């Protein structure tokens, strides 16, 4: 009888524990649901995987400043450069997925997964939307002996990149192959550093998006020899595409979008997606972006992810041809 009594007590104790545990779980779920409904209640941090002052940094800070208006909270940009963006993306992938950590995605998140299978991949993120797409231009100093793309035939150049195997390495490397020349490449800590070295005469050329170098073209310090875009860019009607000049190069373009660590609450995700879409269509943002030399281009999170998946085999092919793809 005594043993039976002890067993019953144990069962009652266990039952109370289960009830308390279940009640606690329900309270936690209710709190999470309430938090998601009230989101956002505090400031967000936006990870930028490139150095301050570069094209991607300036572009994302501008977008974030207008995204704040649609979320109703402040957004703090945080630069985490290194390893061609992988350090920042690795950090973002491991951040809390509560909606208060977002980050900039650029083309090289796709390059890195080919260069290093251990690098963060787009599956590590919730893809929220693309807000910009920019053509790439081939820049030299205005005092350079190279005055046109045709002058590059037989050339021997030192070209800067923001990371070996990145977008600004892939584009000139493909042109190099078309020209049948041999160029040397040296990496810098982002486009701002590369621009400084190009202007200072430490390198011969660099492939940039126009928003970072526009003022130096206008001032006469830099010259554009061509663009890797599929068609001539409206703002630069006199700059030929390399394709129209007879060079078979892929129409590589730089894109910029927003992502968060994978596993966002559905309501939180919906709030972010809606705010990003609204910002991308905001007249004040569009005017500011145009003045900054940016090229707004919106894709929804779903379309942006599909676009990146379509790019994967193209980038793998380019890097394989360069001898840089990991098997």
From TrEMBL:
Pfam families: TctC. Keywords: Receptor, Signal. InterPro entries: BUG (IPR005064), Bug_dom1 (IPR042100). It comes from the Bacteria. Gene3D superfamilies: Bordetella uptake gene, domain 1 (3.40.190.150), Periplasmic binding protein-like II (3.40.190.10). The keyword Acyltransferase does not apply. CDD domains: PBP2_Bug_TTT. Residues 1-30 form the signal peptide. PANTHER family: BLR1237 PROTEIN, TRICARBOXYLATE-BINDING PROTEIN. Belongs to the UPF0065 (bug) family. This is Tripartite-type tricarboxylate transporter receptor subunit TctC. It comes from Bogoriella caseilytica.
